[in-house]
């Protein structure tokens, strides 16, 4: 596997959460934003908003 891809996978694994019954994996947005390179919630929220809008207009 590509070295960069392995690093991303390791980063995601390090912030992964498990539900109380251990059946569901999930990630918190505020943790994801740091891994994705956003330093503030506002920047991340705006990027998510742009992505949502793109999905709506792009079909």
Structure notes:
- There is one protein chain.
- With 59 residues, the chain is mainly alpha-helical.
- The protein has one domain.
- Helices cover 64% and strands 7% of the residues.
- The chain has three helices and two strands, in the order H-E-E-H-H.
- The protein has a two-stranded antiparallel sheet with strand order 1-2.
- Strand 1 and strand 2 form a beta hairpin.
- The chain is extended.
- The mean pLDDT is 95.
- Structural domains: how many: 1
The description of the largest β-sheet is:
2 strands, antiparallel
Fraction in helix: 55-70%
DSSP E strands, number: 2
Distance between the termini: 32 Å
> What do the pLDDT scores average to?
95
Figure out the total of helices.
Answer: 3
Q: Return residue spans where pLDDT drops below 50 for at least 5 consecutive residues.
A: none
- The geometry reads as extended
The H/E string reads HEEHH
Rg of Cα set: 14 Å
Largest sheet strand order: 1-2
- The percentage of residues in β strands lies in 5-15%
Going by helix content, strand content and strand pairing, the class is mainly alpha
Attribute tags:
DNA damage-inducible protein D, two-stranded antiparallel sheet, extended, 59 residues, mainly alpha
Short description:
The chain has about 60 residues and is mainly alpha-helical. The chain contains 3 helices and 2 strands.
Secondary structure elements and pairings:
Elements: H1 3-15, E1 17-18, E2 25-26, H2 29-35, H3 41-58
Antiparallel strand pairs: 1-2
């Amino acid at each position: 596997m590509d070295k960069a891809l392995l690093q991303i996978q390791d980063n995601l694994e390090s912030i992964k959460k498990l539900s109380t019954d251990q059946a569901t994996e999930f990630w918190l947005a505020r943790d994801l934003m740091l891994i994705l390179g956003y330093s503030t919630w506002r920047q991340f929220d705006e990027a998510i908003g742009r992505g949502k809008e793109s999905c709506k207009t792009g079909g």
